[in-house]
């Protein structure tokens, strides 16, 4: 079973003209002015359209088993990009359609700090964006890690302080200094403290799924990967940062910036 999206670009002139299309927060393509594009999907999907010249977005819930036709419109009065459903009818996918279906993640974990984790059947994709990530990690973009290459995952739930989900790889040099070090590691998803309970519940679902996939990937291996739940008090973490500041290892500006990031401010 699958669903199909037919999406039409802007009819009127818009500077830039191209519309980006995202399935569950992941860009899967684009459509130009007075053009059309088709995408096959295999599960209920949140489709978002956004214009490169405008941060405004519009979203539509796409249903599996349905053919949904969408028209993109730029509202000159409000400045918003709109996605209007033209029609929605039952759809029966062919074998050719299924072969072309967009692969969608099983889980999407948005850490709230421009870090997003996409969990697939055989791998995870870590997506880092934003100036802070580029400066602290030297990376901006996507990184793919297969479960068979992961030795363990460390998870600290967000609470008073920012939490994180960190992947260890063979021969890797993962940071072991708690939240402060983890957020500078490209193999880590930072999970901010804002809406901590909701984010922690989602993260725990992902952790349980990862643990299952890691064990499956390592079946028959001598060592079994583990997911380590870490419990670090806010006082301990903040004391580490203050000690670094007092010793001159970091500046006041760096301390303040890291403190805001950890507290999700």
Report on this model:
This protein is of the alpha+beta class. It is built from 6 helices and 16 strands. The protein has a 4-stranded mixed sheet, with no helix packed on it. Helix 5 runs antiparallel to helix 6 (252-263). The longest helix is centred in the last third of the chain and has 22 residues, at 196-217. The radius of gyration is 21 Å and the shape is globular. It starts with a strand and ends with a helix. Residues 131-139 have low confidence and may be disordered.
Sum up the structure in keywords.
265 residues, 4-stranded antiparallel β-sheet, globular, alpha+beta, 24% helix, 16 strands, single chain, 4-stranded mixed β-sheet
Q: How many H/I helices?
A: 6
Strand order within the widest beta sheet: 4-1-7-8
Low confidence ranges: 131-139
> In angstroms, what is the radius of gyration?
21 Å
Total number of beta strands: 16
Structural class call reads alpha+beta
**What is the N-to-C succession of helices and strands?**
EEEEEEEEHEEEHEEEHEHEHH
What proportion of the residues form beta strands (DSSP E)? Answer: 35-45%
Mean pLDDT: 78
Shape: globular
Distance between the termini: 43 Å
In terms of quaternary structure, the protein is single chain
Share in helix: 10-25%
Strand count, sense and closure of the main sheet? Answer: 4 strands, mixed
